[in-house]
Amino acid sequence: MATLRQLAELIEGRIQGNADTEILRVMPIDQARVGDITFVSNPKYLPLLKSCQASAVIVAPGVEAPDSNLLISTNPYLAFAKILTFLQAASPSGKGVMAGALVADSAEVHPSATVCPGACLGERVRVGADTIIHSGTVLYDDVVVGRDCLLHAQSVVREGCRLGNRVILQPSAVIGSDGFGFAPDGERYYKIPQVGIVVLEDDVEIGACSCVDRAALGETRIGRGTKLDNLVQIGHNVVVGEDCIIVAQGGIAGSSKIGKHCTFGGQAAIAGHLKVGDNVMIGGRGGATGDVASNQVLSGLPLMPHKQWLRATMTIPKLPEMRKEMQQLKKRLDELEALMKEN
Q1: Neighbours of 328 (CB within 10 A)
Q2: Phi and psi of 191, rounded to 5°?
Q3: Three-state DSSP state, 330
Q4: What is the pTM of this model?
Q5: Alpha-carbon separation of residue 305 from 295, 325, 337 (angstroms)
Q6: How many CA atoms, within 13 angstroms, populate the side-chain half-sphere of residue 119?
Q7: Which of 81, 91, 273, 321 gets the highest tally of CB atoms within 10 A of its CB?
């Protein structure tokens, strides 16, 4: 429980109403009741304020609701996230290496970390303070995991890979799987040993069933603060810059370099050995087949400016009608040409 005054201090917001109102939890605006706080970040939900029963509402400056306690923030969605973390996110205490965990004698696990039953830690593994490793997780030999990390069930970190601080692996994420490298040998393929590693910098999150392949030589690197959704594939020797977002089923082929603060929509793809600049947004199912300069919003395959792509896609439903009209025009043109020849 916290008062509205405490929450305002947490998010550096401003209160309109009773600062001593007590808040128990965060709830959606249509389900909130007395003791709850809710938020409005999308203007289309503003009409729901009239019937909202929450004890307080997080809103942007300029929103009027005279009968409600308001917590005013320039970024209501971020304020919601911080308050939700403060009120309801679990903060489990370290339990050490629990019975049933398989930990090599040469591994070093900080006393405040938790290694759950069924987890397996190989030789010379190092695990930092307050990190939690859930059941079924496997850390191969020589893996390094920083502090305050959360490795969910069945995640795998292969040999030699390094995780920074506050890294999150969702269930069944795989870090350091072999890169897809094969040399043609007549009608067959010879597997190229993948002897590099993966480095996940601080505050990286990898979604469920996503894979980050180890480098053939050197490193595959995911920059600080970057977030991968579920079912994302990162190829060998890829470098992804800081604070990027890659949405579900996206993929980056081997040896491509991605700049900072890029956002790739669902199923967006980057071909191999390309360079993508900073602040690039690619819409869902967009595909890069050549280098991409910085500071662009693009969509489609081949990529084009997003507004141009919108105009192009609006034309597609009209193509049958346009085809019919062109056939009619061609027929009339042929008739006119025939008539001119007769005269």
Answers
A1: 10
A2: -70, 125
A3: helix
A4: 0.88
A5: 11, 29, 41
A6: 30
A7: 81
Concerning whether 236 is annotated as a catalytic residue, the answer is yes
What are the distances in angstroms from CA 106 to CA 102, 121, 143, 168, 251?
A: 12, 10, 12, 24, 36
Look at 40-49, 73-82, 196-205, 328-337 and tell me which has the smallest mean pLDDT. Answer: 40-49
Q: Is the peptide bond before 302 cis (omega within 30 degrees of 0)?
A: yes
3-state secondary structure of 83: helix
Contact status, residue 291 vs residue 273, Cβ threshold 8 Å: no
Q: What is the pLDDT of residues 84-143, one digit of tens each?
A: 999 987 777 788 999 999 999 999 999 999 999 999 999 999 999 999 999 999 999 999
pLDDT average, residue stretch 163-176: 98
**Which residues, in sequence order, are CB contacts of 313 under 8 Å at separation 6+?**
300
CA-to-CA distance for 299 and 42, rounded, in angstroms?
A: 24
Of 134, 152, 236, 261, the active-site residue reads: 236
At 299, give phi and psi (nearest 5°).
-150, 165
Q: Encoding tokens for residue 47? A: 């009409």
Q: How far is CA 315 from the centre of its chain?
A: 32
Q: Which residue matches tokens 């397996």?
A: 120
Judged on CB neighbours under 10 Å (0-12, 13-18, 19+), 159 is middle
Q: Where are the alpha helices (DSSP H) in the chain?
A: 4-11, 76-88, 306-315, 319-342
pLDDT in tens, 191-226: 999 999 999 999 999 999 999 999 999 999 999 999
Closest CA to 176 of 205, 140, 128: 140
* Tokens coding 24: 């128990």
